[in-house]
Amino acid sequence: MLQVLITLQYNKQRDYRVGLRERLTERMDKLQAMMESNHHLEKPEEVIELLDTITFAWTILSEEDRDYVQGCQHAIEDKIEWKL
Questions:
Q1: Contacting residues for 35 by C-beta, under 8 A, at least 6 apart
Q2: pLDDT tens for residues 1-13?
Q3: Of 3, 24, 28, 68, whose Cβ has the fewest other Cβ atoms within 10 Å?
Q4: Which domain holds residue 42?
């Protein structure tokens, strides 16, 4: 019985992490679209709000995503045009 409960708890945590990663991927995609359209220059508060929904899960983000987020934060703070 204890093993069943442990297994159920593990599966629940794994499902949460998978769901969270999917949501983070969607948010990163939205962030990319906002940055590429230079939305951060027109309405930085909207991009900052989105960044807040991403950075809360900093430890789950890949190193590449962390670098991207930091680049976005820099572009917002210094009002830099985002160029590909």
A1: 47, 72, 75, 82
A2: 555 555 556 555 6
A3: 3
A4: 23-84
50 assigned to some structural domain: yes
10, part of any domain: no
Instruction: Pull the structure tokens for residue 64.
Output: 């590449």
Which residue is it, tokens 């995503």? 65
Instruction: Record the tokens describing residue 10, joined without a space.
Output: 């593990």
Domain count, the chain: 1
> Could you tell me the sign of the dihedral formed by the alpha carbons of 45, 63, 32, 39, in that order?
positive
Provide the phi-psi class of 82: left if phi over 0, else alpha when psi is between -120 and 50, else beta: beta
For the beta carbon of residue 18, count every other beta carbon within 10 angstroms: 10
